[in-house]
Amino acid sequence: MSVKFAVLGHGVVGSGVVELFYKNKESIEKRAGTEMDVKYILDLRDFPDSPYKDKFTKDFNDILNDDEVTAVAECMGGVEPAFTFVKACLERGKSVSTSNKELVAEKGDILLAAAKAHSCNFFFEASVGGAIPIIRPLHKCLAANDISAVAGILNGTTNFILTKMYKENMSFGDALALAQQLGYAEKDPTADIEGHDACRKICIISSLVFGKHVYPKSVFTKGISEISLDDVKNADSMGFAVKLIASVRRLDNGKILPAVMPMLVPYDNIISNVNDVFNAVTVDGDGIDKVMFYGRGAGKLPTASAVLGDVIDSVKHSVTVFSQSWESSDDDKFIEPVANFSARWYIRDSSGSRITDKVMTFAEASALGADSCIPVLE
Amino acid sequence: MSVKFAVLGHGVVGSGVVELFYKNKESIEKRAGTEMDVKYILDLRDFPDSPYKDKFTKDFNDILNDDEVTAVAECMGGVEPAFTFVKACLERGKSVSTSNKELVAEKGDILLAAAKAHSCNFFFEASVGGAIPIIRPLHKCLAANDISAVAGILNGTTNFILTKMYKENMSFGDALALAQQLGYAEKDPTADIEGHDACRKICIISSLVFGKHVYPKSVFTKGISEISLDDVKNADSMGFAVKLIASVRRLDNGKILPAVMPMLVPYDNIISNVNDVFNAVTVDGDGIDKVMFYGRGAGKLPTASAVLGDVIDSVKHSVTVFSQSWESSDDDKFIEPVANFSARWYIRDSSGSRITDKVMTFAEASALGADSCIPVLE
Q: What is the pTM of this model?
């Protein structure tokens, strides 16, 4: 029997899924234990020169109503119409694998419940860290651990800019322009630069690790646009790299504190050596102490690799993977206000720059009225 | 229904499995989707003060013949009697999860076949890289990739010694003595120092990635006992860290070349920043480019975390995981002789030390008759 799957969207990621699948079809089928093929590619545009032009459709119902299609790769991006399409597929028992972080961060709980109700799977390895295996390791390999914290560099664009600033003394503006020139940043770079992209990813990780849906609106998010070259140089001379860190920790009061903000990372923490467009995620647990996952967080084939890995896994599962789920949340009372985020702080004011000796809360550090105030990742 | 499992061996790892399981029982059962309990602990010794003393047995047949036991954690180490016990369990349809790298490296093909024949699973995440998720990510998350190379620091003892040499100018002998004092090295440190431990791990990875059983005897293995402080200092001044690297690559002729030897790692390769007892593995594939996994490669709870993660996964699978398998090998004709291992080389002779401009084979470099001759990891 041959398993047929559909790819929704033929943009960068969707076309990468089709390309990588046909490149490695033989070994993929060996790993899946079954023959596989792409039956449909959904896109409103025409691709008359594609070698797969016979597979294109503009009508989602062709896919939804075809019982031979048992798995779907969603690579459209954005909440709608992706949400409507994905939910409809799951309700027909078709497993869906997605690269769409906005969809998972906003609607993950609903889609996981739909998958469970219809004995299929909603997978989203590609939505966090691109090529880097992180979702499956978190809920499978580390399942025996009490995980207390996750922190990482989850946006490649901002990491590229910060690396150029401290390795090559570029200003923020010049580094951003270079990132745009190289295709690492969009024309409108807001979602990357202001931290919204990293925020969606830490929402997904927080929901998976702590079991309740964390919405982007509940997470304090600060980007890197206020980071000056002075701050980066000062930090370097004190033994720290400035990185945009998305993090979540569980506090002693049982609440969790997710946040996205620039932080100073000591050079003896391996995260400080993660440069250019690379991403990395560290996980702290009582069994493992600390593990780190590192790789390319974006790009056509890296993201396609993660989507396809999920598709292959989904055709092997006839039941819902229980450990990859979380509950809906009615409120955000389980989330600690960022005012109580505590750390040592880098302070720059009229008397110079320094790292505070003592741990202070975000509220206390902000009250100092310094020109620049950045927490240290311990 | 409550799932009952048994733990074979109550040494460092086996006692860690029991300890971590009871510490996190509630969250583990939530992730497994079922109640779970340890029914037996097999050990020839007496543990009269253990809180679990009622669970101990000295008779393996108590476990084998108890149909209520559906999963087993093997933490005894060594090939026998572990092999006999594990095979018998699999032949009764009991899934086995092991931390025993020697067992997997010598008998993995046989045990995987036994698991397949009896619709259960033989899992071994803990056998490579301790706490670090690597086996499951390799065959699941990266399943869409054509993997061309894997390289890593797979032995914490030797990495600790090398780190002390280049960070603190310690001699090899002093660093080894310190490792023994801290419990990182055994009284007889041969298996670590001479690379045998890393060799078993790269055999397991090579077998999984390339699909045929690679035996330790087929893998060129050189340890760190000949590395002098001079070499480490010279390498550092040229921008390299000396690391014991276990690697495997697929060559253009279709053969694979696994090897364990000290290598010079450039400081801009993130592997060079992996210090002390930490391990790390990089994977090169056509979709992902390069990913890295990092963490504690040994120790009671880190290894127990990996074993328990497998046990939790095994109670959820009612069929054999197809992608985690390889074939037996009748000969080693698919393995390229180490004489053809090609790299740039660090050379130290009477005229000083240098890195060769051109790539040479192992045979060519050895023929130079230098006092020291170490390949560069690119």
A: 0.95
